Amino acid sequence: MNKKPKFCECCGIKLSRKRYGNRLESTTAFKKRRFCTISCANTRKQKTKEAKQEQAKKIHSVPNSIEAENLAPLTYMLKVMNDPNEPDDRRDRMAIAAAKYVHCRAKGTRGKKDDLQEAAKKASTGRFSAGKPPKVVDIKGRFSES
Ligand SMILES: [Zn+2]
Questions:
Q1: Is the pLDDT of residue 38 over 70?
Q2: How far does residue 52's CA lie from ligand 1's centre (Å)?
Q3: pLDDT tens across 53-93, in order?
Q4: Which residues are in the CB-under-5-Å shell of ion ligand 1?
Q5: How many domains does the chain have?
Q6: Fewest C-beta in 10 Å: which of 10, 22, 117, 123?
Q7: Residue pair 27/1 in contact by the 8 Å Cβ criterion
């Protein structure tokens, strides 16, 4: 049945199908099992210094292509946008992000913000103008300005 002997990945002991009372561990469960005991399964393999450094590099490294080409952010965005191999969704997002740096608004044209600001100025005149600021009251001479 089991031709290849399996060994615990933690302690290296030879694995065999467990016996629960008079029932034997199912072959599928045995095939999936990689450790002899639960305590072995919970023991993290001690990582070597090299392995740790390798992982740190992976986490902190910038994708190779960017680092190698030393691209400016905008150039990078445009490059992704124009790359047919990139997923469409990513290209769309890059296009949106890059648009405001590529196309500047023509001088003299009014945007939504300008309209809103003007409307706000109009609305705060007349009946709705801001009231007078509160008076500074002199309490025992502490707030007198003279
Ligand atoms: Zn073990």
A1: yes
A2: 23
A3: 887 777 666 555 555 566 788 888 888 889 888 889 999 99
A4: 8, 10-11, 36, 40
A5: 2
A6: 22
A7: yes
